[in-house]
Amino acid sequence: MVVLLDSLGADERWLYPVFLAVYAAIYCVGHLTLFRRWAPRYRLDGASCLISLAHGTPAALAAAGAILAQPPTARGFAAPNSRLQDHVLDYSVAYFTMDLLHYLAFLPGDTLFIAHHLATLFVFVTCRYLVRHGAYALLVLLVLAEVTSLLQNVWTLAGIWRAEKPAAARVYRALSPPFYFLYTVVRGVAGPLFFLKMSLFYLSGQAVDVIPWWVRISWIIVVGTAITVSNLWIWNLWKELFRERKQIMAKKGT
Question: Which of 33, 137, 198, 207 meets the CB 3.0–4.6 Å disulfide criterion with 211?
Answer without folding.
Answer: 207
